[in-house]
């Protein structure tokens, strides 16, 4: 995993909340689905029917996940019922209830709230329906059979390392950098009801804490707990408001903010909008703080390419979808899916067997090799900020 330092070049940019649409999954801006619509039936298949429940269509990441899982299952010969829940917990519960009632043979669920589906999963277990938890661990129930995800604690480690690299505290190869600080930073976390947010936070804070302890990094607001830093539903507008409040409360004395730990690109865009409105930037070369991210959303990839956002974490959802399909095929054939982690993911009732996929940090220098050459985006999409 490469950690190349940002190459700074002056470029103008106007941040718009409407640009773009995964924090680690959460909600950015894009196609709305507040009604909970967005379901689709699969083509006729002979292998059975799989119900796929995705949390939202307001993040391009989850749209891509849903489409990729549906496509992979259809190609494997299964019928598919795909539903997006509009970031509404009752809607997701009702959709899963309906899938169980109509007799799906397996469920793949990316939960809005990892603690809110115990009733639905008990009904699935009573009906003999295996459940695969997709990227977000479903908690407080024994009725989760498998978990497919990325190495979420490593995501946090890489986000924190990218912040340190962008500040110059570390070099691209991870060795000690030329800058000693102190640097003023602020911390953002994901939604507390998303289990992944806690893994991201742990990985990041384990990495940053030694630098906070020795004074290299200073959290000037004093807000250093996940409860203080959390952004409900990963909402871009909520992140913008919190950043505005932090600037007013902690930086009205003329102090400069140097960096922000952000766990998701939608949150990052809200942060960057607040910073730009406060007179920072418009680019890193002009004094925009170093801001991290996650999910390689195209609007944020453009900002990285334009030297506004410093980095993001690329989680190749094509690979995650493929793994979900592979695991589903094993269950439906009467076998157990292959797990590469049987110790880490305790949902409060059981340790859920899991398959973890690797992630990559993306700075400007990595866009070509990781995103364009792999076919994830085209050059035109990177330049326009639209998929």
Note down, in words, how this protein is organized.
- With 387 residues, this protein is of the alpha/beta class.
- It has two domains: 154 residues, Rossmann fold (3-Layer(aba) Sandwich), CATH 3.40.50; 188 residues, Response regulator (Rossmann fold), CATH 3.40.50.
- It is built from twelve helices and 13 strands.
- The strands form three sheets. A seven-stranded mixed beta sheet has the order 1-3-2-4-5-6-12, with helices on both faces. Strands 8-7-9-10 form a four-stranded parallel beta sheet, sandwiched between helices. Strands 11-13 form a two-stranded antiparallel ribbon.
- Strand 4, helix 3 and strand 5 form a beta-alpha-beta unit.
- Helix 1 crosses helix 10 and helix 7 packs across helix 8.
- GO terms for molecular function: carbohydrate binding.
- Keywords: Signal.
């Amino acid at each position: 995993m490469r950690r190349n330092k940002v190459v700074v070049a002056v470029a103008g940019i106007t941040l718009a909340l409407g640009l773009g649409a995964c924090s680690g999954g959460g909600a950015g801006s894009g196609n709305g689905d507040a009604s909970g619509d967005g379901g689709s039936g699969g083509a006729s298949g002979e292998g059975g029917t799989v119900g796929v429940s995705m949390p939202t269509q307001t993040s391009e990441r989850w749209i891509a996940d849903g489409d990729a899982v549906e496509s992979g299952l259809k190609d494997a010969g299964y019928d598919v019922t795909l539903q997006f829940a509009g970031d509404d917990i009752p809607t997701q519960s009702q959709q899963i209830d309906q899938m169980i009632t109509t007799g799906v043979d397996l469920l793949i669920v990316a939960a809005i709230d990892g603690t809110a589906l115990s009733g639905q999963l008990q009904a699935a277990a009573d009906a003999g329906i295996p459940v695969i938890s997709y990227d977000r661990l479903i908690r407080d129930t024994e009725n989760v059979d498998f978990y497919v995800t990325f190495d979420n604690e490593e995501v946090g480690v890489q986000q924190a390392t990218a912040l340190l690299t962008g500040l110059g505290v570390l070099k691209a190869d991870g060795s000690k950098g030329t800058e000693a600080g102190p640097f003023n930073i602020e911390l953002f976390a994901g939604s507390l009801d998303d289990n992944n947010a806690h893994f991201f936070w742990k990985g990041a804070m384990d990495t940053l804490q030694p630098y906070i302890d020795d004074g290299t990094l200073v959290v000037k607001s004093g807000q250093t707990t996940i409860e203080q830093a959390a952004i409900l539903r990963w909402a871009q507008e909520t992140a913008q408001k919190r950043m505005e409040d932090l600037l007013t409360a902690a930086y009205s004395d003329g102090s400069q903010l140097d960096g922000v730990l952000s766990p998701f690109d939608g949150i990052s865009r809200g942060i960057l909008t607040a910073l730009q409105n406060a007179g920072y930037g418009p680019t890193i070369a002009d004094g925009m703080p170093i801001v991290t991210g996650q999910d390689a959303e195209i609007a944020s990839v453009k900002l990285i390419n334009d030297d506004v956002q410093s980095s993001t974490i690329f989680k190749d959802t094509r690979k995650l979808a493929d793994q979900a399909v592979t695991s589903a095929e094993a269950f439906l054939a009467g076998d157990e899916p292959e797990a590469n982690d049987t110790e880490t993911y305790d949902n409060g009732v059981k340790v859920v067997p899991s398959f973890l996929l690797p992630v990559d940090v993306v700075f400007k220098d990595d866009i070509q090799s990781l995103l364009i050459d792999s076919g994830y985006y085209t050059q035109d999409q990177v330049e326009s900020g639209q998929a």
